[in-house]
Design goal:
Number of domains of chain B: 2
Low-confidence stretches of chain B: 1-5, 120-228, 317-346
Protein name (chain B): Translation initiation factor eIF2B subunit beta
Oligomer: heterodimer
Radius of gyration of chain B: 24 Å
Largest sheet of chain B: 7 strands, mixed
Family (chain B): Belongs to the eIF-2B alpha/beta/delta subunits family.
Distance between the termini of chain A: 72 Å
Order of helices and strands of chain B: HHHHHHHHHHHHEHEHHEHEEEHEHHEEEH
Organism (chain B): Dactylellina haptotyla (strain CBS 200.50)
Largest sheet of chain A: 11 strands, mixed
Strand content of chain B: 5-15%
Number of strands of chain B: 10
Mean pLDDT of chain A: 76
Number of domains of chain A: 3
Number of strands of chain A: 35
Helix content of chain A: 25-40%
Structural class of chain B: alpha/beta
CATH superfamily of the largest domain in chain A: Spore Coat Polysaccharide Biosynthesis Protein SpsA, Chain A
Mean pLDDT of chain B: 75
Structural class of chain A: alpha/beta
Strand order of the largest sheet of chain A: 5-4-1-6-12-8-13-10-9-11-35
Helix content of chain B: 40-55%
Radius of gyration of chain A: 30 Å
Largest interface: A-B, 44 and 39 residues
Shape of chain B: globular
CATH topology of the largest domain in chain A: Spore Coat Polysaccharide Biosynthesis Protein SpsA, Chain A
Distance between the termini of chain B: 23 Å
Pfam families (chain B): IF-2B (PF01008)
CATH architecture of the largest domain in chain A: Alpha-Beta Complex
Strand content of chain A: 15-25%
GO molecular function (chain B): guanyl-nucleotide exchange factor activity; translation initiation factor activity
Low-confidence stretches of chain A: 1-20, 429-500, 670-680
CATH class of the largest domain in chain A: Alpha Beta
Chain lengths: 680, 495
């Protein structure tokens, strides 16, 4: 990965048409690595009757990309054969496309590591996922990035953000984040992902950051387009940090948190143009609408990007392909797309809907914002709301499909059924659903029966009833001065995250991450050591970080009083080697107990946990009598024990008393021993 | 009409088109058209002409006997291109023009053949065969140069012209009769022609390079070997290529030709309302500004063209011939005296040339229009019946002008003239990016309203008073004649 610095000045001149010596490369990840589209992921996802990937590739072509690496994991064969037969593999394609399948890819991080190994990248490249719909000019962003690179060598990434109003329909849910930027809104200082449930209430900023930058702008109303210009230095970083998975949560957050890297990340905030990412059914619907409404111009249905498409635009955002048969009394209203071979019978009303090819829409059918894929048959007198009807579905007459339902491939719905908004009907595929695959069977599912983890995001009902869910403090951009920031931090003092900075913070993050992902203790030790060495940190910092991480981890795990001792024991047992490496003296023992106490202060079941910890540490010989007593006595002084801390201490009284008892016993023994000694 | 947003794409295409196979070049162009990387009538026209040149030069049908095959191939290519971007109707125009050239070559050679059958084969030259008077003094001389009608000094040109115009295929000839001086004052790139002879100069546009061999008198062994009628096997490719090159040259010089007419249409102390920011219009006004003092009222045409319009007023650097540098250089090289438009001119704004320029929003057009002497607008495409498609907002302006009986003049190159009839004008209009009207970031608007952004307006024929083309002025009612002259009677459906 030898960068050639000599090329840099030449690149500066590389205006639009002056061909740079190096090809402009783009990496496309054609997999979202989640299950949000289930049960529809069985085929390449598509929007407005065109595969989504097509929009991404067109966007790259518009941006003047010359080489594309398409990484795929799921459905790799389908994607490969699709690309092979498409115009992109022909001689005339604006770029060379390589489809790369690797079974080991399960995240963006893996793709990056793969990239690093393959050494395909020789310059800054564009990194997008295969579900981007955008019409922005990549060249502008690129030029800006390159100009910046000349000034700031440590700039490793420019990410494209789009300012949108907080309640925008095309904002993805569950992917919101706060960007902390300089006052010009160029450099990103800090990235903090926001959780949807439970909603994140506070964001902690590193202390140094606030000190160093009296003026910052915090923004939450930015739509992350997931279009990044990434420097060739980034893939090796992913190799170094083998636990980075996500390009935002892990990489961006990590690289900004860790000043050791000394890297900077910049934002390109779009004021105009369109950029969206189809990452959930919610955005699938809204971006489909944006395409129909020509926000994505020139990427509209009537651009006919696929071979054989013949969409024509007519007033009112209506797109019809050739050979559409419309009955005289059928009413086609605004924002509709109708594929060729589709027949719409008398009295049908179609509004805001997308209908694929060779569908049959019966008499007096009402389609309101429905998305229907190819070869579907909708019987007479049906009413269909904002639902997705996949290919080959047969809905018999008189059915009502409520908004939010998903009917997957080849399902046949019986006459007069009513499909609830939360229903997901599927005929085949995974697990228990398969038994209902017989034709003429209505396989109706309540949401609860369906998928495991991403329940909230997959549910169409939830998707469509999208409201202003996340109106946090940060929803409006504001330049705030130091005082205000300090104030914000001030009332979040109790938050353990906000109290530690620098090394402890990093160590804390890394440990907590490792604990959550159940890494082996050796790895944790390795990581911690590495961090400690590089930051030249003291052992008490290590202890601070470790105790806060352990406590945080335990707190997330412990849900009932019964579980306390079990979890505490398991955790500490697991981390024994780690503790062994940081506890050397009596004072260390006292210190770590104190840190734990601090962390537990004010927490639910803090006392019980503290007692369990003390017990376990004692049993494992990590702490001896002296240590525990030192801690007990130290804290008893008048200096700084908050009431919360005191409460934790109170709870351990019994334990300490017991320890004292033991102490006395052993003292006796010691004395005996000494006496024996004397005897000799 | 729409100013170049991405001339780089066109430049790149023109550069690579000769290095790849014609079929690949076609697909590349289709991609560029679909992504709208090449837009504006002229850029599209240039790209299409260049592609056709490549296509014809690589086509397997080269012989006269295969002319129908060639026509079919070109028509099929045209269908592909038109389907790629049906809203750029100039694609169809250029393809039809090229089809016309091919047909003409075919007919011409057929004519040869029939004449050759009558007279002594091999003694006839092309030149003599076209003329009625095959017995003209020098017609018998079989030399390559005698193939060129204009090489026959002292010959009555009207005769030739009549003859040619009867065949209704060439571009300029029919117009030599009227408005000749105006058009003719543009000079052909070939300096070898005498300046005085305008007909010569114009005619030379059609045949700038000598035909590649094959005057009927020189039979190639190949022809003999095939044992076919040697006239049938004549290679027409060279002629067709020349024809396409003429079209390309026309595209390069059309602005200058149009500008020459400006003085006749803009008079001293007139107030002219101008709609559109195209280079063509700018040149037109600049040229008039050299001699005349007048006031220009620019209509902003928000939201799609207002930036360009403002650009025209303040920073004309953009109009310093960025994309046709090569073309300009070529012309300069061949006829130094007759450099079309000095680039210098475009360093100046209209204001700096002494023209008072007023920029108005579209909404005040009805109020201002009564003060105006004339409305000048550009166009996207002109249709057979005399209506035209122009920037959105033009119809309002034209309608206002009609109310006040103010003449509306459309300035446009003849390559924008389409033989199509607007049966369904709506389908010819393009709808653009909604975000020009409302920013996409405004979630409430995006979700709650229907937003449309038409890029084009259909201006019916009764709202236009006069068309100024590079081959002369026409009223809407007479445009059909020009269509006939341009495209002949053949109707090629490219749908």
């Amino acid at each position: 990965m030898a960068p050639t610095p000599k090329n840099k000045p030449a690149k500066k001149l590389g205006a639009l048409e002056e061909a740079p010596e190096k090809l402009l490369q783009a990496v496309v990840v054609a997999d979202s690595f989640n299950k949000r589209f289930r049960p529809l992921t069985l085929e390449t996802p598509r929007a407005t009757n065109t595969p989504v990937l097509e929009y991404t590739l067109e966007f790259l072509a518009l941006g003047g990309v010359e080489e594309v690496f398409l990484y795929c994991y799921a459905h790799s064969e389908k994607i490969r054969s699709y690309i092979k037969s498409s115009k992109w593999s022909r001689e005339s394609s604006p770029f060379e496309i390589h489809v790369i399948y690797s079974p080991s890819i399960t995240s963006v991080g893996d793709v990056m590591r793969e990239l690093d190994q393959s050494r395909l990248i020789n310059d800054d490249f564009i990194f997008v996922s295969g579900d981007i719909v955008s019409n922005i000019s990549l060249q502008t962003v690129l030029q800006e990035h390159k100009a910046r690179r000349l000034v700031d060598k440590s700039c490793i990434m420019t990410t494209v953000l789009r300012e949108v109003s907080p309640s925008h329909r095309s904002r993805p849910r569950g992917e919101n984040a706060v960007f902390v930027m300089d006052s010009n809104r160029e450099r990103i200082f800090h990235y903090e992902p926001l959780k949807q449930s439970p909603p994140t209430e506070s964001v902690a900023l590193p202390k140094d950051l606030v000190k160093a930058n009296p003026k910052m702008s915090l923004q939450e109303n930015l739509l992350d387009c997931c279009i990044d210009i990434i420097s060739f230095e980034v893939p090796p970083l992913f190799t170094e940090n083998f636990d980075w998975q996500h390009s935002r949560k892990d990489f961006l957050h990590g690289i900004l948190m860790d000043e050791l890297y000394g890297k900077t990340v910049y934002a390109h905030i779009l004021k105009s143009g369109y950029a969206g990412r189809i990452q959930s059914l919610h955005t699938y619907d809204s971006i489909g609408r944006d395409i129909t409404n020509r926000w994505t111009y020139p990427f509209c249905p009537d651009s006919n990007f696929l071979d054989g498409q013949s969409y024509k635009y007519s007033r009112g955002h209506m797109y019809k392909e050739a050979d559409v048969i419309l009955a005289q009394s059928a009413e086609i209203k605004e924002n509709t797309i109708i594929g060729s071979g589709t027949k719409i019978e008398d009295g049908a009303i179609v509004f805001g809907s997308t209908i694929g090819r060779n569908c049959h829409i019966g008499q007096n059918v009402k389609l309101h914002s429905a998305i229907i894929w190819d070869n579907a048959v909708i019987g007479d007198n049906c009413t269909i709301g904002k639902a997705i009807i996949a290919s080959g579905v047969h809905i018999n007459s008189g059915c009502i499909v409520e908004s939010g339902a998903i009917i997957s491939y080849g399902v046949e719905v019986e006459k007069g059924s009513r499909i609830l908004s939360s229903a997901k009907l599927t005929k085949a595929s995974g697990g228990k659903e398969s038994k209902n695959s017989r034709a003429k069977t209505i396989t109706e599912y309540e949401d609860s029966e369906d998928d495991e983890e991403e329940q909230v995001e997959t549910s169409m009902a939830g998707l469509y009833s999208w409201k202003n869910v996340s109106e946090s403090d940060f929803s409006d951009m504001s330049d705030i001065d130091e005082d205000a920031v300090a104030k914000k931090r001030g009332h979040k003092r109790t938050n353990s995250e906000s109290e530690i900075d620098g090394f402890p913070r990093e160590a804390y993050n890394s440990l907590l991450g490792a604990l959550k992902q159940n890494h082996s203790v050796d790895i944790m030790i390795l990581e911690l050591n590495g961090l400690r060495m590089s930051a030249n940190a003291e052992f008490n910092d290590v202890r601070l970080a470790t105790s806060s991480a352990v406590v945080s981890y335990m707190l997330t795990k412990i849900t009932s009083n019964e579980a306390v001792s079990k979890i505490v024991d398991a955790t500490i047992e697991k981390l024994l080697p780690l503790f062994n490496r940081m506890i050397f003296e009596v004072s260390d023992q006292a210190e770590i107990l104190e840190f734990m106490q601090k962390e537990l202060a004010g927490k639910e079941r803090g006392g019980a946990i503290m007692q369990a910890i003390g017990m376990k540490l004692y049993n494992e010989d990590l702490c001896d009598n002296d240590g525990i007593l030192t801690w007990w006595n130290d804290g008893n002084g008048p200096d700084g024990e908050t009431p919360d801390m005191a409460k934790v201490r109170e709870a351990t009284t019994a334990f300490v008393k017991w320890v004292m008892q033991q102490d006395e016993d052993s003292d006796d023994e010691d004395e005996d021993y000494e006496e024996d000694d004397d005897d000799d | 009409m729409v100013a170049d947003e991405n001339p780089a794409a066109l430049a790149k295409f023109l550069k690579i088109v000769n290095t790849v196979k014609a079929s690949d070049a076609t697909e590349i162009l289709i991609g560029l058209l679909k992504r709208r990387q090449i837009k504006s009538s002229r850029n599209v026209a240039k790209a299409v002409a260049k592609l056709l040149l490549r296509f014809v030069s690589q086509n397997r049908h080269t012989k006269l006997s295969e002319v129908n095959g060639l026509i079919k191939d070109v028509r099929d290519l045209g269908k592909l291109l038109v389907a790629a971007q049906p809203k750029e109707m100039v694609i169809g125009n250029i393809v039809r023009r090229v089809l016309g050239v091919i047909r003409e070559e075919g007919n011409e050679e057929n004519l040869h053949q029939s004449l050759a059958d009558l007279t002594l084969g091999g003694r006839l030259s092309r030149a003599s065969s076209v003329g009625d008077d095959s017995s003209a003094p020098d017609s018998g001389t079989v030399t390559p140069s005698s193939n060129r009608p204009f090489s026959r000094d002292g010959r009555d040109f009207e005769e030739d012209i009549d003859d040619l115009s009867r065949r209704k295929s060439k571009v300029y000839i029919p117009n030599l009769g009227r408005g000749l001086t105006r058009i003719g004052s543009f000079q052909a790139p070939n300096p070898s022609f005498s300046e005085g002879n305008l007909q010569h100069a114009l005619f030379s546009l059609l045949h700038t390079s000598p035909l590649p061999i094959d005057s009927p008198g020189t039979l190639t062994p190949n022809n003999k070997a095939e044992g076919k009628d040697h006239f049938e096997d004549k290679d027409i490719r060279g002629d067709v290529i020349d024809g396409i090159k003429e079209i390309m040259e026309e595209l390069d010089v059309v602005d200058e030709q149009l500008a020459l007419a400006s003085e006749q249409h803009i008079h001293a102390n007139e107030i002219v309302m101008v709609l559109g920011s195209s280079i063509t219009l700018q040149r037109f006004l600049m040229k008039a500004a050299i001699k005349r003092k007048f006031i220009v009222v620019m209509v902003e045409t928000y939201p799609n063209d207002h930036k360009d319009t403002q650009e025209v007023l303040k920073a004309p650097s953009k109009y310093r011939l960025p994309q046709s540098k090569a073309a300009a250089a070529k012309i300069t090289a061949s006829t130094p005296k007759d450099e079309p438009m000095p680039t210098l001119e475009f360093k100046n704004t209209l204001t700096s040339m002494g023209v008072e320029t007023i920029l108005i929003p579209d909404s005040v057009v009805p109020a201002i229009i009564s003060r105006v002497n004339k409305v000048i607008m550009g166009s996207h495409v002109i249709l057979r019946n005399g209506s035209c498609i122009t920037n959105a907002g033009a119809k309002t302006v034209a309608r206002c002008a009609l109310q006040h009986s103010i003449p509306v003049v459309v300035v446009s190159g003849v390559y924008k003239l389409s033989p199509l009839y607007p049966f369904d004008p709506d389908s010819m209009l393009e709808t653009g990016d909604s975000s020009a009207v409302v920013g996409w970031e405004d979630g409430d608007m995006v979700g709650g309203t229907e937003i449309f952004n038409p890029l084009m307006d259909f201006v019916p024929d009764n709202l236009v008073d006069h068309y100024i083309t590079n081959v002369g002025g026409y009223t809407p009612q007479n445009l059909y004649k020009l269509v006939e002259e341009q495209y002949g009677s053949a109707t090629d459906s490219l749908e």
